[in-house]
Amino acid sequence: MVDRKFNIKYDFISGNSSINWSFPEFANCPLCTADKDLIFSIFRKSGYIKLSREIGEDWSVAVIDHPSPIVDDSYEGEWNDWPLKSEPAKGRHYVIALGKDHIPFHELSKDTIMEGLYAAQEVYKKFSEINRVVYIIISLFSANGYDIKGHPHFDVIGLPYIPKIIGDQLNGFRQIYEDRNECPVCDIIKSEGNSNRIIYSNENWLVVIPWSPMKYNEIRILQATHYKQFQKLTQKEIESLAFMLKVVGASMGKLKGHDYSIAFNLPPPKRSTNYFHMYVSVYSTQTVEDALYNGYGILLTDPDNSVKDISRTFRGVLKDFVGL
Ligand SMILES: [Zn+2]
Ligand SMILES: [Zn+2]
Questions:
Q1: How many domains, the chain?
Q2: Is residue 115 part of a domain?
Q3: For labelling, which of 218, 229, 242, 309 has a CA lying 20 to 30 Å from the CA of 248?
Q4: 1 located within any domain
Q5: Alpha-carbon gap, residue 73 to 228, rounded angstroms
Q6: Domain ranges, residue 136
Q7: Residue 1: its pLDDT value, please?
């Protein structure tokens, strides 16, 4: 399918990873023609959410293979251990088209967002069963549409490793559980009480401005109850989450000059991690590449070209300085 080598590279100094990939330019929107490459679609019948393997005129959410995936089982690459660790960028990457219109995320109806979350649960279950998939990212890179022609969508990415930000959180939660027998999210919910950092809550979710955010303009949507896996959220819970995402998104959309992203902070699907407490992070982004870096610690980069550019520039500057 692809003749380039795609690697995941690991940096033992920072703990971050990078993948050589850049956002593709499409001549036509691949999501408007989702029926060509459809995996499944979601539609409503008599008020109930239904899943179909075929696409009809009435789809509201459609799932396809990403036409230019970040990770894919067909990719070749190099295996290296130490200290320049790399592996082929193998995995799965689906796109969930949210509705048929090119509009910002927060202008979607609550129902469309809910159907998108339902589709994400289905993809999550499917990816969980793949041997090589160790972690599953669910993310909205660009709410204002700087990715895939402005067609709103979720990216679901099955990775062969746990990305740094998630790995650090898992270690942190486990340590707190071992030391104190407590969950930081549950305890933060308790101690925030009626504080003005809790901007909205219902029986399922709380919308919280973090005490100490880790991203610009970060808002977190915390699950009200401890440890329930994403794929097991009920329709009522995802409906309520869809509403929160729409309202939080509409608020973020009012911040002038900013785009925003959404990252689901979920535990890895195959590990026993009942010390973890899922939440969704919504945050400002400058570029689409920031979404994965700020959300998960994964840098999308083209290291071969940037190495060439930087070293050529450096040699030019050096020449001027030392007069060679
Ligand atoms: Zn489109
Ligand atoms: Zn908890």
A1: 1
A2: yes
A3: 229
A4: no
A5: 30
A6: 7-322
A7: 45
Percentage with pLDDT > 90 across the chain:
79
| Residue 2, domain member (yes or no) | no
Ligand nearest to the backbone CA of 274: 2
Compute, in angstroms, the gap from residue 247 CA to the centroid of ligand 1: 23
Three-state secondary-structure class, residue 263:
strand
Whole-number Å distance, alpha carbon 65 to ligand 1 midpoint, is 15
Type and span of the H or E element at 51: strand 48-52
Helices (H), the chain: 110-128, 164-180, 184-192, 235-253, 288-296, 303-322
Q: Minimum-distance ligand to the CA of 228?
A: 2
Query: Is the confidence at residue 13, as pLDDT, over 50?
Result: yes
Contact 246, 114 (CB under 8 A): no
For residue 317, the domain's CATH number is 3.30.428.10
Q: How far is the CA of 213 from the centre of ligand 2 (A)?
A: 18
Q: Name the band, by pLDDT with cuts 50, 70 and 90, for residue 22.
A: confident
Residues by chain with Cβ below 5 Å of ion ligand 2: 183, 185-186, 226, 277
Residue 215 has pLDDT above 90, yes or no: yes
Distance from residue 144's CA to the centre of ligand 1 (Å): 13
Q: What is the pLDDT of residue 44?
A: 86
